[in-house]
Every structure is written in structure tokens, then in C-alpha cells.
From TrEMBL:
PANTHER family: TRNA (GUANINE-N(1)-)-METHYLTRANSFERASE. S-adenosyl-L-methionine binds at residues 154, 179-184. The gene is trmD. It comes from Bifidobacterium myosotis. Residues 106-115 have a biased composition (Polar residues). This is tRNA (guanine-N(1)-)-methyltransferase.
């Protein structure tokens, strides 16, 4: 998988060289590149934002700089009609979506990629946005199969709404996601969260893929996970639940499942409401 991230603070993403993400990159499973949006500016101040049309506080990220950057990273040709910097441009005619096996035009002759990174997949363009639908585990699962993800990090009061509109009209798969009901200073941390949630689900990323199957938020009957313990059996007077030491796998499974149900009902009743009844067994119903 190839991941491009555009930001005015690309250093935020230096941490992706660490831990499992670093290992996945060393293995050639993943290629993450952070780009500085200001590299696509032409003015002396490298400005990327402007005041909001209609008034209001703060600044909004300008579409022209973003478009030059995204056109290049998506391998699209910049249309002449959008060349003007004064906003007096022609309307864009929507085109049909990319063919299966769509391949971006090469932006430089030296652009070769390791064979492990699928280059033929159509890219997915993702904008973090606190006013967008919530990013969930099922979005992460779906995106873990993509060949190319391109994230655009907004700052200030956000980005001009025509940026995602324009790329959607070009037939690009464009997503906007929030990561939770709180406000961050910019999209960088939200993108870090999404990239980690997505990449860990890629085949071959995890040493032990079983650890993904049993997790919270995974599958039809998504519940919060049961609590975990390690040795010693008694620590500072606190004992591990006895059933976990019994060696009876049936009883251990039942105990964990009951705990997952009880904790979910208490902490996240919305997840119980959303449960598919078919995901519950007879013993579950008693819990
Ligand atoms: Cl995606 N961006 C920002 N700036 N704040 C957020 C968010 C995103 N998701 C939750 N809060």
C-alpha cells in the first residue's frame, strides 16, 4: 500500500518510521510519504489560506494550492480552465469514474515503485474533517484493501468545500471523516489515527493475525473486549478471576463473553442496540 499525506507540518508523521509501521515499511508492505503543502505555492509567503467568503473568524485553506498538489500526487493533468487565481473560472464538467486497474499518469520518469506496492489500484482521497461522518472500524477494514491512499490535512478553520467536490466530479473516490466528537487543531493527529487503524489490518502487517479477530469493534457482533490479565495470579492483594486459571477453555470463553456483554451494556449501550440478534447465543441472552 502506498500512502501519501499532505500537510503544512509533515514532521508530524516522522513517528511512522517507528514500531510496527516502521517494520512494515522496511518489509516493503507499506510506503508512507509526507509532503509539505507549501512546496506547491508560488508566492514569497508560501501562503495556503485566506479569509472565509461570507465572513467569520479564522482562515480557510485555498483551493488553488491544494489542487496543484493533489493533481500531481493523483497523476491528473491540471485543466487549463482552473489555471486562474482570481476565482473566475469555468464550471467543471463531471466525468465518469476511473476504470478498474486505473493507473495514474507518471509525474516523473524516475517514478518506479517496489513490486509489493500495488500501483494499479485507483487512489482514495481522504480529508479529515470534524464535521464529517465518524471513521469506524468498518471503514478501516475497507480501506486496508486499497492500493493507494492520499490524505489531505486541513488546518485553521478547514479547507474550501470545493476541493473534495472537484475531485469527486473527476471520478476520484473522495472520503471525509471525523475521528470523534471533539475538536483538534488540524487534521494531522486524525490522519495518524486513521493510518494506524487501516495499516494494522493489512495482510502480513501483524505478527499474530489472531489478535485482530478477537478485538473490540470487529465483526457483526461488535462488543468491547473483555479485560486482560497476566501473571502473577495475585498482585498487591488483587487476584486474577479464578476461572481464568482453571484451564477449562469452555468456561474461560463463557466468562470472557459475559464480561464483554456486561461491559458493553454499561459503557456503550449504543453498541448493544446496534447488535445483530443473530450474533447472540442462548447464554448471551441471559447475560
Ligand atoms: Cl478529522 N479534524 C479536526 N480538526 N478535529 C477533529 C477531527 C478531525 N475529528 C475529530 N476532531
Amino acid at each position: 500500500m502506498k500512502i501519501d499525506i499532505v500537510s503544512v507540518f509533515p514532521e508530524y508523521f516522522d513517528v511512522f518510521g517507528l514500531s510496527l509501521m516502521g517494520k512494515a515499511q522496511a518489509k516493503g508492505l507499506l510506503e508512507v510519504k509526507a509532503h509539505n503543502l507549501r512546496d506547491w505555492t508560488h508566492d514569497v509567503h508560501h501562503s495556503v489560506d485566506d479569509t472565509p467568503v461570507g465572513g467569520g473568524a479564522g482562515m480557510v485553506m485555498k483551493p488553488e494550492v491544494w489542487a496543484e498538489c493533489l493533481d500531481e500526487l493523483l497523476g491528473l493533468n491540471t485543466p487549463d480552465v482552473c489555471a486562474g487565481g482570481n476565482g473566475e473560472t469555468d464550471a467543471v464538467t463531471p466525468q465518469s469514474g476511473p476504470e478498474p486497474g486505473w493507473e495514474p499518469a507518471e509525474t516523473s520518469s524516475s517514478m518506479s515503485q517496489p513490486a509489493t506496492i500495488p500501483a494499479s489500484d485507483a487512489p482514495v482521497l481522504i480529508f479529515p474533517n470534524p464535521s464529517a461522518p465518524l471513521f469506524t472500524q468498518s471503514d478501516a477494514t475497507e480501506l486496508s484493501h486499497a492500493g493507494h491512499l492520499l490524505f489531505g490535512c486541513g488546518r485553521y478553520e478547514g479547507y474550501d468545500a470545493r476541493i473534495p467536490d472537484y475531485y469527486r466530479a473527476q471520478g476520484i473516490d473522495v472520503r471525509e471523516y471525523s475521528i470523534g466528537d471533539y475538536v483538534l487543531n488540524g487534521g494531522e493527529v486524525a490522519v495518524s489515527v486513521m493510518v494506524e487503524a487501516i495499516t494494522r489490518l493489512m495482510p502480513g502487517f501483524m505478527g499474530n493475525p489472531d489478535s485482530i479477530v478477537e478485538e473490540s469493534y470487529t465483526g457483526e457482533g461488535a462488543l468491547l473486549e473483555h479485560r486482560q490479565y497476566t501473571k502473577p495470579a495475585v498482585w498487591r492483594g488483587l487476584a486474577v478471576p479464578e476461572v481464568l486459571l482453571s484451564g477449562d477453555h469452555g468456561k474461560v470463553d463463557r466468562f470472557r463473553r459475559d464480561e464483554a456483554l456486561a461491559r458493553t451494556a454499561e459503557i456503550r449501550p449504543d453498541l448493544i442496540e446496534a447488535l445483530d440478534c443473530k450474533a447472540l447465543d442462548k447464554a448471551d441472552r441471559k447475560t
